[in-house]
């Protein structure tokens, strides 16, 4: 099974579709508008403005995550593109490696 080119490790396509629909609904909610209104990326802390923030699943759908308020965060496009399908621990290790290279 695949979705947008990613192997979903046995996660049912219908489950992914349902979770993406939930995320779209949450994007229209006052809760999400409040989150992006702060204009701050969850991962790097950079102030980028609400219009520049994207919605990210902390635990990606392709790794078993769900579209719940506890699993959705505003991120800058740069962090979201770098994180892709990483789990939180994988992201932390990635960021530590980048910091050690500086």
Describe this structure in words.
By secondary structure, the protein is an alpha+beta fold. It has one domain (2-101): DNA Binding (I), subunit A, CATH 1.10.30. 43% of the residues lie in helices and 14% in strands. It contains four helices and four strands, in the order E-E-H-H-E-E-H-H. It has helices spanning 13-27, 30-37, 77-83, 88-101; strands spanning 2-3, 6-7, 53-57, 72-76. The strands form two sheets. Strands 1-2 form a two-stranded antiparallel sheet. It is flat. The termini are far apart. The model has no long low-confidence stretch (mean pLDDT 89).
List the helices and strands and how they pair.
Layout: E1 2-3, E2 6-7, H1 13-27, H2 30-37, E3 53-57, E4 72-76, H3 77-83, H4 88-101
Antiparallel strand pairs: 1-2, 3-4
The value of Rg in angstroms is: 14 Å
Q: For the residues shown, what is the average pLDDT?
A: 89
The proportion of residues forming helix, as a percent range, comes to 40-55%
Task: Using the alpha-carbon principal axes, give the shape.
Answer: flat
Strand order of the largest sheet: 1-2
For the largest beta-sheet, the strand count, sense and barrel status come to: 2 strands, antiparallel
Low-confidence stretches: none
Range of strand content: 5-15%
List how many beta strands DSSP finds.
4
Q: Note the run of SSEs as H and E.
A: EEHHEEHH
CATH architecture: Orthogonal Bundle
Q: Could you tell me how far the N terminus lies from the C terminus, measured between alpha carbons in angstroms? A: 39 Å
CATH class: Mainly Alpha
According to CATH, what is the topology?
Answer: DNA Binding (I), subunit A
How many domains? The number is 1
| Helix count from the secondary structure assignment | 4
Structural class: alpha+beta
């Amino acid at each position: 099974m695949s979705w947008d080119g990613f192997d979903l490790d046995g996660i049912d396509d219908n489950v992914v579709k349902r979770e993406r629909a939930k995320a779209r609904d949450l994007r229209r909610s006052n809760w999400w508008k409040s989150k992006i209104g702060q204009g701050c990326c969850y991962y790097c802390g950079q102030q980028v403005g609400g219009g520049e923030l994207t919605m990210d699943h902390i635990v990606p759908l392709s790794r078993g995550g769900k579209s719940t308020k506890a699993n959705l965060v505003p991120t800058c496009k740069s962090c979201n593109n770098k994180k892709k399908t990483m789990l939180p621990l994988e992201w932390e290790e990635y960021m530590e490696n980048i910091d050690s290279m500086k």
